[in-house]
Amino acid sequence: MEHYSDDKLLDLFREESSRNYAYNLIVRKYQERIYWHIRRMVITHEDADDVTQNTLIKAWKGLHKFKAESQLYTWLYRIATNESITFLNKKKKRFFISMNDVEHELSQSLESDEQYSGDEIQLKLQKAILTLPEKQRLVFNMRYYDEMKYDDISKILNTSVGALKASYHHAVKKIESYIKED
Amino acid sequence: MKNKKEILEEIEKEAPFLSQIKKENHFSTPENYLEFLPEVMNDKILNKNYLSILFDKLSYKIFIPVSAAIVLVFVILNFNTENISSELTSDQLSELIIDDEYFEIDDYLVYEAYAELLEEEENEATSENDEYINYLLENDIDINLIIEEL
């Protein structure tokens, strides 16, 4: 597979003759990061697959309007984040349940998920992350797992770096106290 | 790399217990899921493109003629409804007028009903005359002789 820079990929996308090819390369380049970002939010593979596909379709529809003012991957992350939150909100509305119950349900899905193989402490860590409010969970996942810079997270979530640092600090403290329990 | 080190230090400082847990991904996907995803997406966007092109083409070839046909059928049905009301016989019309149930009577409708009545009477008279003439012809009677006798 050819390794093109984002600028080159976007140039190829703008040409009608190479649009599908460029899109295919963009999907290959970012699908893994997008999928895992979504999967950590919605937990089950089936849901993550749906949300990932919606994200990539929205990217296809919006790529021709994308201006290189932001990085391609932060733009894709933003779509993925919005899609994940929309999905969780719809789930909440569909079953008339509160966000806390959604998190409880996600926690149960995690325990029964055949595609999750973590040991006890890993399961506890995942459950601890699920107790966090949605936005703190996003910040924690992006910083802890994706190892993103606060600047990039700030562009994705449209939040100041200071607020993100505070949010991450709270998230880490809550997780620490949850896994230390018992 | 600098960012990775910074994150690690951040965790060690704020959450020593968490920092000792290995950062591993224990979630998995069905086999070859990510390998096939680009093809799945390609099919999806091609289908979407095909559907949008098809819709554009169909809008000229099918949707516009179908819409026109629907409007035409609607007009014809309305026209037929008027015909049904004008096809009332004079007796039915009279009954309706007497019972004061028919409010939408226009001049044309009344004219048609009377024309129908007059035509019926005329037809009756013509058939009576025809019967006389046939009788005279069959019995070889000269109509002038009858007139003279009178």
What this model shows, in words?
The complex is a heterodimer of chains A (182) and B (150). Chain A has helices spanning 6-14, 19-42, 45-62, 72-94, 99-112, 120-130, 134-145, 150-157, 161-180. Chain A is an all-alpha fold and 182 residues long. Chain A has two domains: 1-116, Rna Polymerase Sigma Factor, Chain: A; 119-182, Winged helix-like DNA-binding domain superfamily/Winged helix DNA-binding domain (Arc Repressor Mutant, subunit A, Orthogonal Bundle), CATH 1.10.10.10. In chain A, helix 1 packs across helix 2 (19-42), helix 2 (19-42) runs antiparallel to helix 3 and helix 7 (134-145) crosses helix 9 (161-180). The longest helix of chain A is centred in the first third of the chain and has 24 residues, at 19-42. Chain B is an all-alpha fold. Chain B has one domain (38-149). Helices cover 80% and strands 0% of the residues of chain B. Chain B contains six helices and no strands.
The largest sheet of chain B, given as strand count, sense and whether it forms a barrel, is: none
Tell me, briefly, the overall form of chain A. Answer: globular
Largest interface (C-beta under 8 Å): A-B, 42 and 30 residues
- The count of domains of chain A is 2
User: What amount of the residues of chain B lies in strands?
Assistant: under 5%
Overall mean confidence score, pLDDT of chain B: 73
Helix-residue proportion of chain A: over 70%
Report mean pLDDT of chain A, rounded to a whole number.
Answer: 88
**What is the count of β-strands of chain A?**
0
For this structure, what is the CATH homologous superfamily of the largest domain in chain A? RNA polymerase sigma factor, region 2, helix turn helix motif
Oligomer: heterodimer
- Total DSSP helices of chain B: 6
% residues in beta strands of chain A: under 5%
Going by CATH, the architecture of the largest domain in chain A would be: Orthogonal Bundle
